[in-house]
Design a protein that fits this description.
By secondary structure, the chain is an alpha+beta fold. It folds into 3 domains: about 10-150, RNA polymerase II/Efflux pump adaptor protein, barrel-sandwich hybrid domain (OB fold (Dihydrolipoamide Acetyltransferase, E2P)); about 190-235, Dihydrolipoamide Transferase (Irregular); about 245-465, 2-Layer Sandwich (Chloramphenicol Acetyltransferase). The chain is built from 11 helices and 20 strands. The protein has helices at about 10-25, 110-120, 135-145, 190-200, 220-235, 245-255, 270-280, 295-305, 355-370, 375, 440-455; strands spanning about 30-35, 45-50, 55, 60-65, 70-75, 80-85, 95, 100-105, 150, 260-270, 315, 320-325, 330, 335, 340, 345, 380-385, 405-410, 415-420, 420-435. The strands form 5 sheets. Strands 10, 13, 16, 17, 18, 19 and 20 form a 7-stranded mixed β-sheet that branches. Strands 5-4-2-7-9 form a 5-stranded mixed β-sheet, with no helix packed on it. The relative contact order is 0.10. Residues about 1-25 and about 110-185 have low confidence and may be disordered.
């Protein structure tokens, strides 16, 4: 679970929202609205309820887990009471400010009433917990159609009726009567029914009519169309796109069509690097450290960056400035069951090889086990991705938004290689570098890539303190 550490200010805001809602609700029944958990997010998915109707809850007890576009967040309750009703089902996406749970507050706790009196003249509310601007909401729904937005979902809400399709008033030419030369079988159906069958892809001759004299009706056609749809659905799986996967897709599209990408390739003899890793794994001081060619490549990127700082820069569109960063928050592309995440190691250039390898292991494991923090998932300056683990030899990676360079590590394979005057079997791999051509020109990108390659070919400098 990607858990966010909510700051003290957020907890105070959350409690204020509860108090204000108590004043607005008669008696001691309270409806808790979905709060804005940070960064102005508009909606969240209800991942799982940790309480149920009729359950007694205590102060600071976690009641629900939600997924925003950034992370999974567990929401606590600042008051004690009894859960009356869960207003939103698991798996539904709701807007900030939507009531999600109804609670009967404990009347025996005077501190709640006193707090309410202290807040009686308060007008501020938590972002998103007040009334929504309907015009704005409709505009957002029209322009960002990536999931069904629901309001308060109540168990007693009436189910929407499904209207029957309108009768189609289309005049068709009369069918010719069969003659002795070319007889045809014609289904008994009115022209509107025939038009509906054509629109639905239904063969009238395959139907048995339920109308007068065995004629085919609208209902017969619709029933056949629904049956065809049910059969087609068995061959398809539809998965709603929201949360991290939605944000990842939007970010990749924005990056691909904003930054002019250039990709360069170089093939490297990594035999010495593999031999070095084998020797290090046998040393006691590296016991328990996950060592790999990726950790050597990450260290090489940190050492090579100062010679070409353009690969660690950022194009600030608003201020029209190039921001060169003299620190490296190294992102590591990680495949998870929630989609691609790129957690990053803060100040990676300050770590030696052993500590960098351990830091990479920590952020990758946190992302895969849903424990990565927002801090780990944001603020990257340059990235690395490993497609070699899938047996792929090379690729053209897309830049994470706001970064100017990403290095791709391909699969390590045995190939004939010229060493001195001999042709030997060596372990080689292909590195690819994608960079933002607004910030990095061809000479700078080429130098950065060749510097990395040289460090991997002669890797002793990578493990220096």
């Amino acid at each position: 679970m990607i858990t966010c550490q909510m700051p003290r200010e957020f907890s105070m805001q959350l409690k204020s929202a509860w108090v204000i809602k108590i004043m607005e609700t008669s008696g001691s029944v309270f409806e808790f609205r979905l709060p804005d958990v940070g960064e102005g997010l508009e909606d969240a998915e209800i991942v799982g309820w940790k309480v149920s109707a009729g359950e007694k809850i205590q102060v600071n007890q976690l009641i629900v887990e939600i997924e925003t576009a950034k992370a999974l967040v567990e929401l606590p309750t600042p008051f004690a009471g009894t859960v009356l009703e869960l207003l939103v089902n698991e798996g539904q996406v709701v807007y900030v400010g939507t009531p999600i749970i109804r609670i009967q507050l404990d009347t025996e706790k005077p501190s709640v009433a006193q707090t309410t009196e202290l807040k009686s003249e308060r007008t501020e509310i938590l972002v998103g917990s007040g009334p929504r601007n309907e015009e704005t909401s409709h505009r957002k729904r029209a322009t960002r159609n990536y999931g069904t937005k629901v309001g308060a979902v109540r168990s007693d809400a009436p189910k929407p009726s499904i209207p029957k399709p309108p009768i189609l008033s289309v005049h068709e030419p009369r069918l010719e009567a069969p003659d002795s030369i070319n007889s045809r079988v014609i289904a008994l159906a009115k022209p509107p029914v025939r038009r509906l069958a054509r629109d639905c892809g239904v063969d009238l001759l395959s139907l048995t009519g339920s109308g007068p004299e065995g004629s085919i009706t609208h209902e017969d056609v619709l029933a056949a169309a629904n049956q065809m749809k049910d059969v087609a659905n068995l061959k398809e799986t539809r998965t709603p796109i929201h949360g991290v996967r939605r944000v990842m897709a939007e970010a990749m599209v924005a990056s691909a069509f904003t930054a002019p990408h250039v990709t360069e390739f170089i093939t490297v003899d990594v035999t010495s690097a593999i031999e070095l890793l084998d020797r290090l794994r046998a040393l006691p001081e590296f016991s328990g450290v996950r060592l790999s060619i990726l950790s050597l490549l990450a260290r090489a990127m940190c050492i090579a960056m100062p010679n070409t700082p353009e690969v660690n820069s950022f194009w600030d569109v608003e201020s029209q400035e190039v921001v060169t960063k003299h620190y490296i928050n190294l992102g590591v592309a990680t495949a998870t069951d929630r989609g691609l995440l790129v957690p990053n190691v803060k100040d990676a250039e300050q770590l030696n090889f052993k500590n960098l390898a351990k830091a990479i292991e920590e952020v990758v494991d946190a992302a895969r086990t849903k424990k990565a923090s927002l801090n780990q998932l944001t603020g990257g300056t340059m990235s690395i991705t490993n497609i070699g683990v899938f047996g792929v030899e090379t690729g053209t990676p897309i830049l994470p938004p706001g970064e100017s360079a990403i290095v791709c590590l391909g699969a390590i394979v045995m190939r004939p290689w010229v060493v001195g005057s001999q042709i030997l079997a060596r372990k080689v791999c292909t590195l690819s570098l994608s960079f933002d051509h607004r910030l990095v020109d061809g000479a700078q990108g080429s130098k950065f890539l060749t510097d990395i390659a040289k460090l991997l070919q002669e890797p002793l400098a990578l493990i220096a303190p």
